[in-house]
Amino acid sequence: MKKKSKRYQKAAEVGDLTQAYNLEEAIALLQQMPSPKFDETVELSAKLMVDPRQSNQMVRGTVALPHGSGKTVKVVVFTDKPDEALAAGAEHAGLEDLIKKVQDGWMDFDVAIATPSAMKEVRKIARVLGPRGLMPNPKSGTVTDDVAEGIQQVKAGRVEFKMDKTANLHVICGKKSFPKEHLLENAQVIIETIGKARPEAFRGRYIKNMSISATMSPGVSLSSEHFASM
């Protein structure tokens, strides 16, 4: 069994982590935990009761965080009008040249946006982008003719989420250094958005449990008051 660091052990002593807390209490506990030498990313996690093997029970979507994610987002745009995308704030833009670059192994970006007309070419690298969660998708707003708006939303704090094969969701909530009120508002919006993403075909209890954690800290369980009615 892997030995936990002294800092991790001290973090676990901040509160009784066998208990569940309301969101405000959980964030307060998280921010009291000792931090490493970098600003940790805070993440909200949910265990869903849906069946990930059923295509009509897939849970995915995007959420616009009121106070942003605290992360500097590198955006690439697949388009035949690269100058417009670069002027709108994209780090890289292009079509055939950019696709070749990705095929050769370059992946120095966080979000990929594409125009609808470019998607025929972008599908050539679906096997590369898909497993990394980077394939442009209309449902996540990353396939759009309004490239400038798409770039602006991503850089302002729009976060994409997608359930994994074990029915778990992990959504970036911000940075540990954020004021508690900002993390609280971001987390509340995330929980509401996950609730709205409930598949229409699914019946029964939707969320089994939720927790909030930082990069190098133990998770803090959230009380069911936040998701029992979803």
Structure, briefly:
The protein has 230 residues and is an alpha/beta fold. It has eight helices and ten strands.
Question: Which helices and strands, and how do they pair?
Answer:
Layout: H1 6-12, E1 20-21, H2 23-32, E2 41-48, E3 60-64, E4 75-78, H3 82-87, E5 92-94, H4 96-103, E6 111-114, H5 119-122, H6 126-129, H7 147-156, E7 158-162, E8 168-175, H8 180-196, E9 207-214, E10 220-222
Parallel strand pairs: 1-10, 4-5, 4-6
Antiparallel strand pairs: 2-8, 2-9, 3-7, 9-10
Provide an overview of this structure.
With 230 residues, the protein is of the alpha/beta class. The protein has two domains: 15-69 and 159-226, Ribosomal protein L1/L10, rRNA-binding domain (Ribulose 1,5 Bisphosphate Carboxylase/Oxygenase, 2-Layer Sandwich); 75-155, 3-Layer(aba) Sandwich (Rossmann fold). The chain is 29% helix and 22% strand. The chain contains eight helices and ten strands. The protein has helices at 6-12, 23-32, 82-87, 96-103, 119-122, 126-129, 147-156, 180-196, and strands at 20-21, 41-48, 60-64, 75-78, 92-94, 111-114, 158-162, 168-175, 207-214, 220-222. A five-stranded mixed sheet has the order 1-10-9-2-8. The protein has a three-stranded parallel sheet with strand order 5-4-6, with helices on both faces. Strand 9 and strand 10 (220-222) form a beta hairpin. The longest helix is centred in the C-terminal third of the chain and has 17 residues, at 180-196. The relative contact order is 0.26.
